[in-house]
Structures are given as C-alpha cells and as structure tokens.
C-alpha cells in the first residue's frame, strides 16, 4: 500500500524535532476495518489488563495505567491487521533509508481505554533493554468529540514543562523517539481505541 502522506516531510520532522503527528495517515477504509477488528476481538474477551515493566518485573499497576491490550501477533491473520502491518513496514523501511536508525521490527498491540482509563507519565524504553527506538500510536475513534479527553500528552523538554496534546481522532498517526519523550494518556469520557507500537532496532542490550 502506498503511503498517504509525504514521507520525506515526516522524516524531516523526526530528524529535527524527534516527533511528528500525521493526520489521515492511512486510508479511511483501512482505519474503519481496524476499528471493527479491534471491537470484535474486544467483545470476544481476548484482551488482558495492561502491565508495566518486563520479565520478572512486570506487574499490573492500576494506579499507573488502566487500559487493556491485545498484541497484534495474536490476530495477525485478520486482513485489516495484515494491511496495517504492511503499511507500517513501508514506514519502517523509509525511516531506515532516511535516518539510519537500524529498525528491524515492529511490536504493536490494540489498546482499549474504557471510560475514565488513563496511563500516567512515562518513557517507552525499558531500563534493561534499549531496543525500542520509535514509538507509534495510531487512533481508531471516528469523530472524537473535542471535550472527550483521551489525548496523548507529549512532553517536549526534559523537565516536562512544555507539551502538546494530540486528540485521538481516527486516522491520526503519532511517531516519536522512545527514549526521549515522556508522555501520558489523559482520561477520556468514552471508550478510546488505538494501535500502539514500537519499532525496535537491531542490537538491543537485551534480546527480545
């Protein structure tokens, strides 16, 4: 699938700012199919409550995050998921050609935030594994109300004094460097759906 946006402009933003927000990043039909697939597997009870940490240190901590997730490798044969993965692979190849990040794979999951759910401020890179390099968030909610909350708040400086809030509107793709930007998900007044992922580089300190 050909990309819906100017990939060179995206690479320029990543090179200069380390983050970029891309509206209408995927065809509307694919976004709708992904939303339907997400809701279908949600209703089938395939999700689990999200945890923090990794390995032996992984734990459910409801005071930090209250979403539920389903890794896409569990439903990779769904047509919408396969098409999404193909598009994200095109982005990965372009990033590698333009920015030489050495990205090797994408790990990603559906995320469902029930009404009132949140994810407190955090970084996406583990202390003992530096493979996660570029975070990806793709939104699935159609016609998201401006007063419904659920934004991702991306902190733009190390002291977290400056930030932008990105509305979780269907078709919007957010990319940012995983080790650089603290961020959080604000509570929403209605169910919030997304696909969240991380491009992983070769040579991480701990094998996946």
TrEMBL record:
> Which UniProt key words apply to this protein?
Dioxygenase, Iron, Metal-binding, Oxidoreductase, Vitamin C
Q: What is this protein called?
A: 2OG-Fe(II) oxygenase
- Superkingdom of source: Bacteria
Write down the species.
Vogesella oryzagri
Signal peptide bounds:
none
Identify the residues that the record assigns to the Fe2OG dioxygenase domain, covering every copy.
102-201
Query: Which cofactors is this protein said to need?
Result: L-ascorbate
Pfam families reported for this sequence: 2OG-FeII_Oxy_3
